Amino acid sequence: MSTPKLLGLSGSLRSGSFNTMLLKAAMTSFGEADTTIGDLELPLYDGDLEAEGIPAKVSKLAEQIAAADAIIIANPEYNKGISGVLKNALDWVSRTPGSAFRGKPTLVIGAAAGRTGGETSYYMTRNCLAPLGAAVLATPAVLIAAVHTEFNEDGTLKSERYQEGLDAAVATLRTVSESR
Ligand SMILES: Cc1cc2nc3c(=O)[nH]c(=O)nc-3n(C[C@H](O)[C@H](O)[C@H](O)COP(=O)(O)O)c2cc1C
Protein backbone atom coordinates (compact mmCIF):
# COMPACT_ATOMS: atom_id res chain seq x y z
CA MET A 1 0.00 0.00 0.00
CA SER A 2 1.21 3.54 -0.69
CA THR A 3 2.01 5.84 2.24
CA PRO A 4 -1.27 6.55 4.03
CA LYS A 5 -2.51 10.09 4.39
CA LEU A 6 -3.14 10.91 8.05
CA LEU A 7 -5.02 14.05 9.00
CA GLY A 8 -5.04 15.42 12.55
CA LEU A 9 -7.55 17.91 13.94
CA SER A 10 -7.30 19.59 17.34
CA GLY A 11 -10.30 21.26 18.93
CA SER A 12 -8.03 23.69 20.76
CA LEU A 13 -6.35 26.59 18.99
CA ARG A 14 -4.00 27.72 21.76
CA SER A 15 -0.29 27.31 21.13
CA GLY A 16 0.32 25.28 24.32
CA SER A 17 -2.70 23.02 23.82
CA PHE A 18 -2.48 19.63 25.51
CA ASN A 19 -4.91 18.28 22.93
CA THR A 20 -2.55 19.31 20.14
CA MET A 21 0.27 17.61 22.07
CA LEU A 22 -1.85 14.48 22.39
CA LEU A 23 -2.72 14.68 18.70
CA LYS A 24 0.96 14.88 17.77
CA ALA A 25 1.77 11.93 20.08
CA ALA A 26 -0.99 9.95 18.35
CA MET A 27 0.24 10.92 14.89
CA THR A 28 3.76 9.81 15.83
CA SER A 29 2.39 6.51 17.13
CA PHE A 30 0.61 5.94 13.78
CA GLY A 31 3.96 5.34 12.11
CA GLU A 32 4.95 6.17 8.56
CA ALA A 33 2.38 8.45 7.00
CA ASP A 34 1.91 11.58 4.98
CA THR A 35 0.71 13.78 7.87
CA THR A 36 -1.19 17.05 7.96
CA ILE A 37 -2.73 18.99 10.83
CA GLY A 38 -5.84 20.77 9.67
CA ASP A 39 -6.36 24.45 10.45
CA LEU A 40 -9.60 24.94 12.41
CA GLU A 41 -9.15 28.66 12.83
CA LEU A 42 -12.13 29.43 10.62
CA PRO A 43 -14.71 32.19 10.56
CA LEU A 44 -17.83 31.46 12.59
CA TYR A 45 -20.40 29.65 10.52
CA ASP A 46 -22.83 32.22 9.14
CA GLY A 47 -25.38 31.48 6.43
CA ASP A 48 -24.88 34.96 4.99
CA LEU A 49 -21.14 34.33 4.65
CA GLU A 50 -21.87 30.95 3.09
CA ALA A 51 -24.17 32.63 0.57
CA GLU A 52 -21.14 34.66 -0.57
CA GLY A 53 -19.22 31.41 -1.15
CA ILE A 54 -17.56 28.77 1.03
CA PRO A 55 -14.44 30.39 2.59
CA ALA A 56 -11.18 29.15 1.05
CA LYS A 57 -9.93 27.79 4.42
CA VAL A 58 -13.09 25.71 4.77
CA SER A 59 -12.73 24.29 1.24
CA LYS A 60 -9.09 23.44 1.98
CA LEU A 61 -10.07 21.64 5.18
CA ALA A 62 -12.81 19.69 3.39
CA GLU A 63 -10.30 18.69 0.70
CA GLN A 64 -7.83 17.50 3.36
CA ILE A 65 -10.57 15.44 5.02
CA ALA A 66 -11.70 13.97 1.70
CA ALA A 67 -8.11 13.05 0.81
CA ALA A 68 -7.30 11.44 4.19
CA ASP A 69 -7.05 7.68 4.67
CA ALA A 70 -7.33 8.14 8.43
CA ILE A 71 -8.30 10.99 10.74
CA ILE A 72 -7.47 11.64 14.39
CA ILE A 73 -9.45 14.25 16.30
CA ALA A 74 -8.22 15.43 19.72
CA ASN A 75 -10.78 17.51 21.50
CA PRO A 76 -10.91 19.28 24.85
CA GLU A 77 -13.99 19.53 27.02
CA TYR A 78 -15.49 22.95 27.54
CA ASN A 79 -18.24 23.13 30.14
CA LYS A 80 -19.06 19.46 29.61
CA GLY A 81 -19.29 19.87 25.86
CA ILE A 82 -17.44 19.76 22.54
CA SER A 83 -15.22 22.75 21.82
CA GLY A 84 -16.87 25.47 19.77
CA VAL A 85 -13.84 25.49 17.48
CA LEU A 86 -14.37 21.88 16.46
CA LYS A 87 -18.16 22.14 16.22
CA ASN A 88 -17.82 25.22 14.01
CA ALA A 89 -15.40 23.36 11.73
CA LEU A 90 -17.72 20.34 11.48
CA ASP A 91 -20.67 22.60 10.66
CA TRP A 92 -18.72 24.36 7.92
CA VAL A 93 -17.44 21.11 6.42
CA SER A 94 -20.98 19.72 6.40
CA ARG A 95 -21.89 22.58 4.05
CA THR A 96 -19.26 21.70 1.46
CA PRO A 97 -20.06 19.42 -1.48
CA GLY A 98 -18.99 15.79 -1.44
CA SER A 99 -19.57 14.49 2.13
CA ALA A 100 -15.88 14.68 2.98
CA PHE A 101 -16.14 12.67 6.21
CA ARG A 102 -18.29 9.86 4.84
CA GLY A 103 -16.77 6.48 5.67
CA LYS A 104 -13.47 7.96 6.91
CA PRO A 105 -11.84 5.91 9.66
CA THR A 106 -11.78 8.44 12.50
CA LEU A 107 -10.31 8.15 15.99
CA VAL A 108 -11.55 10.57 18.64
CA ILE A 109 -9.29 11.20 21.64
CA GLY A 110 -9.17 13.91 24.25
CA ALA A 111 -7.38 15.56 27.13
CA ALA A 112 -8.94 17.67 29.84
CA ALA A 113 -8.23 19.08 33.26
CA GLY A 114 -11.02 17.18 34.99
CA ARG A 115 -11.18 13.66 36.40
CA THR A 116 -12.87 12.07 33.37
CA GLY A 117 -10.50 13.47 30.76
CA GLY A 118 -13.43 15.06 28.96
CA GLU A 119 -15.66 12.01 28.66
CA THR A 120 -18.82 14.04 28.09
CA SER A 121 -17.15 15.98 25.30
CA TYR A 122 -15.85 12.71 23.83
CA TYR A 123 -19.34 11.24 23.46
CA MET A 124 -20.70 14.55 22.23
CA THR A 125 -17.97 14.68 19.59
CA ARG A 126 -18.89 11.19 18.44
CA ASN A 127 -22.53 12.29 18.17
CA CYS A 128 -21.57 15.38 16.18
CA LEU A 129 -19.58 13.23 13.73
CA ALA A 130 -22.47 10.80 13.21
CA PRO A 131 -24.51 12.95 10.79
CA LEU A 132 -21.37 13.54 8.75
CA GLY A 133 -21.00 9.80 8.19
CA ALA A 134 -17.53 9.45 9.70
CA ALA A 135 -16.59 5.86 10.55
CA VAL A 136 -15.74 6.63 14.17
CA LEU A 137 -13.76 3.81 15.77
CA ALA A 138 -15.18 2.02 18.77
CA THR A 139 -11.83 1.48 20.51
CA PRO A 140 -11.63 1.95 24.28
CA ALA A 141 -11.66 5.73 24.77
CA VAL A 142 -8.28 7.42 25.10
CA LEU A 143 -9.01 10.28 27.48
CA ILE A 144 -6.21 11.95 29.42
CA ALA A 145 -7.45 13.23 32.80
CA ALA A 146 -5.77 15.92 34.93
CA VAL A 147 -3.90 16.78 31.78
CA HIS A 148 -1.72 19.49 33.31
CA THR A 149 0.27 16.76 35.07
CA GLU A 150 0.48 14.21 32.25
CA PHE A 151 2.91 15.56 29.65
CA ASN A 152 6.68 15.86 29.62
CA GLU A 153 8.31 19.07 28.42
CA ASP A 154 8.89 17.51 24.99
CA GLY A 155 5.18 16.76 24.52
CA THR A 156 5.40 13.04 25.22
CA LEU A 157 3.07 11.32 27.67
CA LYS A 158 4.46 10.54 31.12
CA SER A 159 2.24 7.55 31.81
CA GLU A 160 3.01 4.21 30.19
CA ARG A 161 -0.61 3.20 30.68
CA TYR A 162 -1.86 6.17 28.67
CA GLN A 163 0.80 5.65 25.99
CA GLU A 164 -0.15 1.99 25.64
CA GLY A 165 -3.85 2.87 25.34
CA LEU A 166 -3.02 5.48 22.72
CA ASP A 167 -0.79 3.08 20.78
CA ALA A 168 -3.50 0.39 20.77
CA ALA A 169 -6.20 2.77 19.54
CA VAL A 170 -3.95 4.25 16.85
CA ALA A 171 -2.87 0.78 15.70
CA THR A 172 -6.54 -0.08 15.23
CA LEU A 173 -7.01 3.09 13.21
CA ARG A 174 -4.09 2.11 10.98
CA THR A 175 -5.41 -1.41 10.48
CA VAL A 176 -8.91 -0.19 9.66
CA SER A 177 -7.62 2.45 7.25
CA GLU A 178 -5.42 -0.11 5.48
CA SER A 179 -8.30 -2.54 5.05
CA ARG A 180 -10.50 -0.07 3.17
C1 LIG B 1 -14.15 27.48 28.67
C2 LIG B 1 -13.53 26.29 29.35
C3 LIG B 1 -14.33 25.31 29.85
C4 LIG B 1 -13.77 24.17 30.44
N1 LIG B 1 -14.58 23.15 30.85
C5 LIG B 1 -14.03 21.99 31.27
C6 LIG B 1 -14.84 20.84 31.51
O1 LIG B 1 -16.05 20.86 31.37
N2 LIG B 1 -14.21 19.69 31.89
C7 LIG B 1 -12.85 19.61 32.04
O2 LIG B 1 -12.34 18.54 32.38
N3 LIG B 1 -12.07 20.68 31.81
C8 LIG B 1 -12.62 21.86 31.42
N4 LIG B 1 -11.83 22.94 31.12
C9 LIG B 1 -10.37 22.83 31.31
C10 LIG B 1 -9.72 22.23 30.09
O3 LIG B 1 -9.85 20.82 30.16
C11 LIG B 1 -8.24 22.61 30.05
O4 LIG B 1 -8.12 24.01 29.98
C12 LIG B 1 -7.53 21.95 28.88
O5 LIG B 1 -6.15 22.14 29.03
C13 LIG B 1 -8.03 22.51 27.55
O6 LIG B 1 -7.44 21.83 26.48
P1 LIG B 1 -6.13 22.37 25.70
O7 LIG B 1 -4.97 22.26 26.67
O8 LIG B 1 -6.00 21.45 24.55
O9 LIG B 1 -6.37 23.80 25.31
C14 LIG B 1 -12.37 24.08 30.56
C15 LIG B 1 -11.56 25.11 30.03
C16 LIG B 1 -12.14 26.19 29.43
C17 LIG B 1 -11.23 27.25 28.85
Spatial shape = globular
Low-confidence stretches: none
CATH structural fold name: Rossmann fold
Mean pLDDT: 97
The biggest beta sheet, please?
A: 6 strands, parallel
Can you offer a commentary on this structure?
Strands 1, 2, 3, 4, 5 and 6 form a 6-stranded parallel sheet that branches. The longest helix is centred in the last third of the chain and has 19 residues, at 160-178. The protein contains 6 helices and 6 strands. It is an alpha/beta fold and 180 residues long. Helix 1 (18-30) crosses helix 6 (160-178). Helix 1 (18-30) links the parallel strand 1 (5-10) and strand 2. The N and C termini lie close together (11 Å). The mean pLDDT is 97. Flavin mononucleotide is lined by residues 12, 14, 17-19, 76-80, 112-114, 118, 147.
Task: State the gist of this model.
With 180 residues, this protein is α/β, with parallel strands linked by helices. Helix content is 39%, strand content 15%. The chain has a single domain (5-178), classed as Rossmann fold (3-Layer(aba) Sandwich), CATH 3.40.50.
Supply the key terms.
180 residues; alpha/beta; Rossmann fold; six-stranded parallel beta sheet; binds flavin mononucleotide
Task: Give the SSE map.
Blueprint (H helix, E strand, L loop, with lengths): L4 E6 L7 H13 L3 E4 L9 H5 L4 H12 L2 E5 L9 H11 L10 E7 L7 H11 L5 E2 L5 E3 L15 H19 L2
Parallel strand pairs: 1-2, 1-3, 3-4, 4-5, 4-6
The structure holds flavin mononucleotide.
